[in-house]
Batch of 4 targets.
Target 1
Amino acid sequence: MPEPILQLLLIPLIKIVVLLVVVLLIVAYLTYAERKILAYMQVRLGPNRVGPKGWLQPVADGLKLFVKEDLVPGGAEKLVFMIAPAIVMVPALVMFAVVPFGEPFKVAGISVTPYLADINIAILFILGVSSLGVFGIILGGWSSNNKFSLMGGLRSAAQMVSYEIPMGFAVASAVLMAGTLSMVGIVEAQRTAQWWFMFPGILGFGIYWVCGVAETNRNPFDLPEAEAELVAGFHTEYSGMKFALFYLAEYANMMIVSAMAVVLFCGGWLPPFPNLLAGLWALPVLAWIPGAFWFLAKMSFFLFCYIWFRGTFPRYRFDQLMNVGWKWLFPLSLANVMLVALGVLLLKG
Amino acid sequence: MEHYVPILVYTLVAISFPIVALLMAKVIRAGSPDPVKAEPYECGVKTSTVAFDTRFSIRYYLIAVLFVIFDVETIFLFPWAVSFDRLALFGFIEMMVFLAILLVGYVYAWRRGALEWA
């Protein structure tokens, strides 16, 4: 087969299939992990009936959601009601196109990159596409003809746009340190700097992570879905496969926020303390571990933190949520950008 | 360009995913429609109004307007951050002036109570 066809057609297609399968598999088992970890935190056993230790639980859940009756509430905007879950799901999947999972490696003499594309506007791409998800949530809440859903959708939209601003500032502080918008470039900049950016940019990292948890509507910021007051918020009326799409999108978004935290602040696929530790004793050992392992390990840690927060923190009130976003995180992130810019200016001269 | 073609193909695959999932579910799912089931979930009593008539706080609009202003500000930060090495001191001072102007707007919005949620 001629080289260009192989490079341009076959390899990207294989990568697309692998990426989708891996992402959906991680999402499915994230739901299992969440139930299991929450159960152990509350001294329960969690799912343990379907398959050995409940490993097949996600398969059973998926099958159940497939055959569930799909109810459309009377008086709902039918078309909008149907496409809203798709509007949430598609951006959540599309963002994975630019996430670098590891270093380029060689298979049968062909260099393969474990990411779909390394574009020089990757950060803008992710920030832009992630903003599209909010349309699906507000449309789903609005089209349901349910008062709880309407309030949930509005709350969700207000929360997501409020936390997007400090998040943008925090991401900008990492971009300042790296000097590029390419995800691969940011990881390489951390290799050159011999630091993960979370050490000089600890404030930006903290702001990013709080905003990331708020952006995905997770505890302690899960006001849009607050069971006690809004039943399930924007997806009260959704059932069957449409509900499953909302559910999958939430977990895919958690993965993206974690992956972004890893790339921007925790050195992507680099082993811990690039060059420093590796130069001493660990070089022969760490060189054997593929970069994708480090990436997935760091991402798993952040995903565990999500579940940990859910098992630990009570929920905020909505006015507290908006206060934290606008009166604390916004000025703090602004000051952080100024400080980082000053630091980069002084260090790089 | 060669980097964007895979993203385009991947986007098309991602768009087809929910469509295929919903169509497959449509074929195999259970279905026995009933007017009582189609009632919006509220309290058990037949709902007297449609949800779109519900009033909600004007502050949601206010937050949206504030978001537009400050999100545009973030977008300005990215090209500046990428070329910060070359802009050096000039770029630093320029951006500080820009941020200071927006900070004045932020303080004004705060003082006028636009950030209060009550």
Target 2
Amino acid sequence: MNKLVKLFITSISAITLALVSFSSSFAKVEGDYIVLGSAISLTGKYSSNGVHTQNGYNMAVDRINKMGGVEVQGKKYKFEIIYYDDESNPKRAAQLAERLIKQDGVHYMLGPYSSGLTKAIAPVTEKYKIPMVEANGASRSLFTKGYKYLFAVLSPANQYLEVAIDLAVEKNGGKGVRIAQAFEQDAFSQDVRLGILDAAKRTGSEIIIDDKLPKELNDMAATLAKVKATKPDVLVVSGHTKGALTAIRQISEMKVDVPMLAMTHCDAAKLSKQHGKKSEYALCASQWHKNLSYKDKFFGSGKKYDKDFKKEFGYAPPYQSAESSAALLVFKDAFERANSFDRDAVRDALKTTEMQTFYGNIKFGPGGQNTAKPMILFQVRCKGDECENKVVAPTKWASDKFYHPIPKWSERS
Amino acid sequence: MDFLIFKAPMLMVQASLDGILLGILFALIAYGMALQWGVMNIINIAQGDLVILGGYIAYTMYLAGIHPAWGVIVSPIIMYFVGWYLYKLVINKVVDRDLFISILATFGIAIVMQQLMNFIFGADVVVAQSEYGTTMLFDNSVTLPNSKIFSAFISVLYAVGLVIYMKKSRLGRAIRATAQNARAAKILGVDTEKVYAATFGINAALCGVAGALIAITLTLHPYVGLPYTVRSFMIVIVAGLGNLPAVAISGMGLGLFEEFADYILGTEFRIGAVFMLLVFILVYRRFKLSKKREYLK
């Protein structure tokens, strides 16, 4: 028995060793392929958004490869991605990033899903000087740590709902407004909150309710009762999909009348599908919407992307997919401008990125965040039982007028 | 600290009613826990996950076009068998070991259940719509969702039904006998193994009812079971085992305590306040978790 165990252990070690030495020979570029690595949440609590992210990456890889690939020093290369499932667990994500870099020899990384996981991976990519373009980590703290190899195609979290406060002030004739806010206690939502605090200060608005929701909470009745009693001009809620769904459920049940309701994660929560007409008039922050007029030669316009994505994956692309696709376009552009596979050359090229994609303009600030793309707001509007997200701000892309104030529940059918 | 609640009497009414309605629902979950804790001396960490699974059963019905309120009948039936099989599969192998092993085993069940629910139902947060509307009191200044009133009503109904069942039925009497003295019950011809399995099944069925009610009043997600486990654990600690009126009162008390902590200390301290209370009560009552075990195989 003991012998058998020993034999087993020896053979396993031998196989592992062989695999390790074999995979180390995998380099950043293999034949005609540029190999990118990504740890992504395919199981665990982020798995739905993880899959949206992966679909976005895959869609862009296919498209770029089909349209001629990446040209470096006169030779055409194709993209290939090695994925590992991080189980929505930050520790696991950091391990996998290490494995991608050390064992698989990956020299360029794509980001995982969520701010929390990106925060776990960034120190690893930084340590090994691996350029990472990420599309799903918006937390402001990612961009204040002085990371040199991290680039994010999305707008940072503090910008999510600032526009909403500006809009409320505009509707109030330029005077400051009274804000009630409820944010979950996590990195992302608290960054959104900081943005609101800045906007309130800038516009002379007053924050009358400032609740922090514990992560485990799925009941906001107390916050909403306070809102009913104090009658603010605008109610801001951010707590991922759970926060959005709980808020709409309880606002409609408790008949809370507020002139303006601004939220995050309406898209991901499928708000208008799950709550139907109850979600009407909610104002939602979004990184992207198909109706925006940005263009590029790979995906054409947002509308075209929407159509192609639906055809390929059978559902309308949430912004998580669109921004993930954009990350690949950024990499391609950087490789071609660097005209080299040297990591630092690619990083320097990424740093000077200035381009338009179907997803928006991309230009990186000193911390690696995208400074060229504004956040947009859409409002849920319903015709009969059919509800749709209509872009209402910024005015440049508004397809519909912003409906304000929200009618009272007693007047809503 | 915020004393808004003391300035507006209507807020006080709203908070009290919200707290009590929520507390009744917690009490139902806690009653199941108290029952199987009392009978088998097992602390079931998977309690909250059984609740969520019950909720997903109601949600599945909702997706199929059936009103989710029917879940309060269908879900406990399915969950009874889930509980029964869980007992046969895992619990009866650990029930005679020490308390720590049973906590570990049920913790393992909790993780497996979370992953399975995530795999089957997806990681999205979901809600089932009851369309029950709202009851408005005091000129619309206090609002009570009818779904919450419905859930409190159903909880009371099941709790009362169970008390009667425990008193009158043969199995109920056998369960109570086993809880009092397993050895004596066995000598007098009670099939304790069957009693244990049935108890675990009844506990799971109660979780099923509570889950269906949560699907129509709150939200469902594969990973939100733990807070329900913690709350029911607390209620049971306060109330003691096998004392239903105490469980009900302690449940409502906890609901009230949470709501008022939310208003006065701030929402961020709501769950923290619950844990503080737990520590306080544990110290105060010197609750002996390592009470003498009385399992017989």
Target 3
Amino acid sequence: MPASGPAQAHGPRLAGDLAIWFFILAELLAFGVFFAAYAFARAKNIELFAAEQAALNRNAGALNTVLLLTASYFVVRAVQAAEAEASRQCANWLGGAILTGFGFVVVKLTEYAAAFEHNISLSSSTFHMFYLSLTFFHFMHVILGLVILIAMWNGARQGRYRPGDMNGLETGAAYWHMVDLVWLILFPLVYVIH
Amino acid sequence: MQYKSQAVAMPYFIAAIGLFVGQIIFGLILGLQYVVGDFLFPEIPFNVARMVHTNLLIVWLLFGFMGAAYYLIPEETETELFSPKLALAMFWIFLVAGALTIVGYLLVPYSTLASMTGNDILATMGREFLEQPLLTKIGIVIVALAFLFNITMTVLKGRKTVISIVLLLGLWGLAIFFLFSFYNPVNLVRDKFYWWWVVHLWVEGVWELIMAAMLAFVLIKVTGVDREVIEKWLYVIITLALVTGIIGTGHHYFWIGTPEYWQWWGSIFSALEPIPFFAMTVFAFNMVNRRRREHPNKAAVLWALGTGVMAFLGAGVWGFLHTLAPVNYFTHGSQITAAHGHMAFYGAYVMVVLTTISYAMPILRGRAANSEKAQVLEMWAFWLMTIAMVFITLFLTAAGILQVWLQRVSDTPMSFMATQDQLMLFYWMREWAGVMFFVGLLVYLASFFVKGEAKAVAARG
């Protein structure tokens, strides 16, 4: 890949804006505290957690994992395309990421619909509280991530990102990868590990 | 000063400082009533003094915020204020309404005040911090709307900066959440639930935006650091403040009858509330270290740095101390809360207003900075008040730990009043720290009247 911008001559360059990395660290800390609270609550209530976890739709969770990973891959390709001065492809890859991201939203919504049909609520049990809170908190991040992806898609179509001027694209990409990363911990933790 | 209309900030700042003095005098009365129970009884009972102490605090901070907005908005938007006359009219309305309310608290029994002011038409009185009579509350809304109209119109016709937009967002939020003070459901759980929408979403939500904007403005002026850098920090700080602060409201919903999940939500999100305050501290020190100029107003720089540190300690650390539900189960409503309340309000909001006054007042009086002598005195006041507040906080924390132990943890728990008797030593020490604070405040007042060689006439600002 061609070196992008003069900054690279002076050693490794931070991809994206410094501010987004502060923000990502704060987000990871927030999810981290939430995960720790989950572990703490689960340790006191292993049977309940195991039983209710088994009732979750693991296939939907797995499908969503695939969708998010695919979206992240598309975002990586979009960044690479922009670095190769191919704005058109960059926009197309971002379009793909947006579609797969929306796929996640649809799967999640059907999962929520099924849960509400079974009278699962924030107050129905501690496990359900964590399941709904954690996944919904993450869900809101996916929504925000999609808004950012759409803004970037728009920017890419106008040819805004090019070598040496990648800050906006990389910043948004870093945020999206964070959303993906959190799900990669959330999914096994809440749906699988027992 | 760059814009003539900035001058309307001056009466707001003077009123703020005047009411601040009143607040501290009532603080001293209250502190003494803790140890000498019948002091000034029946003329000024404890509940009335407390109401005056807390209401004066809120009102003078509002004066400070409004003054700060009138000062910084013209400079940020690079245009004169939409209507300086409206700003001045609102000043007098707010001052007179505020003074009448305090006089009402002091002269007539609270229930008489309630029946005199139409509380039977719409009952809004009797709730902590929102004790104001209906008429005063309506007055506050009118003043706030006129103020917001004035500021918003100014921003609309001028340059739009991140600082002015964040400030505007905070001020609009302040006005909108105040409307919940008119909603007073019969159900006590609902009552408390929405009461916090005013109290918590003010101080741990929208006020943080106002504070960050004010701090950022002063830091740009005294350090000369690029606006771009400061704006980026501002974005990060306000996002963190809102993400943690809004759901963090849950730390008030642990024991009021709301569903149990609030214990988790409140604990988790409010545990993260120190982060934006920590970011503000790092921000202030970082900007001062990267300064591109030596501003002659050293006192303002000291106040700005002090705000960062004390807000983090008072709001962040002392808030975290008792924010987790399992801890709060024991500490709820004890002197630990009072310790946190004192240092958080002083560190975050009192100090940010004093920072802005420290920077703006000399300029409003026609000089870039006060004389060396006046600044030295102001810095003495800074240290006296700040150290006194640290002591007040530590003594109240000690009292709180002892209180929680004797009353709630011990195998043979004592009654509330019997416990209070055991805390007298700490209450006395707190009162003496309060006297030290008052001395600091007097030194602060004196610093405005010290003459001496003024630093360079403010060349257009």
Target 4
Amino acid sequence: MEFFIEKAILLNGFACILFVILIFFFLAKDGLALFKFVTIQDFLFGTLWNPLAEPPQFGILPLFLGSLIVTLGATIISVPLGMACAIFIGEIAPRWMRETLKAGVELLAAIPSIVIGFIGMTMLGPVVKNLFHLPTGLTALTGALALAFMAIPTIVSIMEDAISSVPRIYKEGSLALGATHWQTIYRVIIPAASSGIVAAVMLGIGRVIGETMAVMMLTGNASVIPKTILAPVRTMTATIAAEMGETVRGSEHYFALFALGLVLFVITFFINLVADAALHRKQK
Amino acid sequence: MQTKRLFKGMMMAFGIFCVGILPVHAKEKMIQIKGSDTIVNLSQAWAEEFMTEKPNVSIAVTGGGSGTGIAALINGTTDIANSSRKIKKKELDDAQKGGYYPEEFKVAVDALAVIVNPANSVKELTIDQLSGIFTGKITNWNEVGGKNEKILVLSRDRNSGTHMYFLEQVLRKGNEKGPEQFAPSVLMLPSSEAIINETSTSESAIGYDGLGYVSAKVKTLAVAKKNGDAFVLPSKETAMNKSYPIWRFLYMYTGFKPRGEIKAFIDFVLSGKGQKIVDAMDFVPLGEK
């Protein structure tokens, strides 16, 4: 009996890896087919995304920069907030409050992204529009704010784990040497938990860059190279989601969307790799 | 011991499942419909009415876009593909390679309304002016008789058959392979509702939407085909008598010449009763077109 269960678990483990590899090959097969029609330079550095033109233009630079600016914005907003929240939960909050707060933050992760997108469209958009006197509230900033919301639960829960797994003796030693609680937090605990903190940030970024529904509803999807965070942008994920439904299968446009997926896959793969490396450094 | 009992239980459950499912399969006829999101609700309405008339037929309607629907037809995973555009040459070739000979049916007419914020003083535009605005040649409302304000241009995204239609018939003025493109600065919104929402809150916005989606929160513009032509407001009547210039057919495609239940369904769609449903769903019936 035990033998079968062990084998079944082993098989499941291998199946997961196999799926990732299969997905990668599937993406690569259709994605790389694009380069029979377009050069890699034109694809990566072209500034015009016009898949329905004759001949079509597949420059992903505006889309890449769109994803970048939204992700950067969301990271800048969510990391300090998430970090403050994690430190409060892990170090400062009394025990009863800690459990409630943790559960609350994790509940935030359970909100479907389309709901966040909808709330963002009806509440956040008008606020951004009126605050900055813009012609429209659908901007990179609106998307970044909504995505920050979605990244915070990931960041807080991993960071809080890292902070509370710092050995007690570090803290006690620091306090015994006469450091205040605050000094202990930022001179001892944060450096000791730094690898976990880096991992939390990277996984938060991974969450943000792959998000589709909310950004599609909130960023306006204009494929211009963004000059400010208050301009509408079009992200890579939203482009795939928005265009896949109407493409002709096996057309250049279809391959271009797979190539875009491949770019996203490579980016998230590296982000995860960095997060993983950070976590492993901690264990040494 | 326990695993044996579990196994027995599973076999029994499977047996019951089989017995339960078999007679249903033997009796019911399934029709799969897939494709354009524009036509999803309309198809659902047709399907519901048809199923009450013929309870032994069940129809499953899914969206996903015209391209998805036609791809499913080519793969043999749907019986009928809904499309808001004509099938492309490449898709037709692919279908024939797979042994399918798609048949085309025009099932309804959809008029597109050009909409602005109610506070906008502009009432009418020509197709030329619309093309200029959406391609980015005209960027200020004062160039078309409005106040001095930058135009915020809204479009449906490229997943929408509406986008394609507007591109070919308005931006390119009917020349399907023309060089005109949506300006990069055009906002691409994911739904009809998002366009209405944005137009109603932004005074400088212009957008387009299926006539059925237009609400009192926005103002529809009268459109003239050429300079000097009369400006016509979109309505079911003006779309049916062709005086309003921006309208298109909606299509259904079958993999083969339809037979049996599929033929009955298509006949129902094209019948007076089916076309009455078109009208009730705020699309334009085929009429004499």
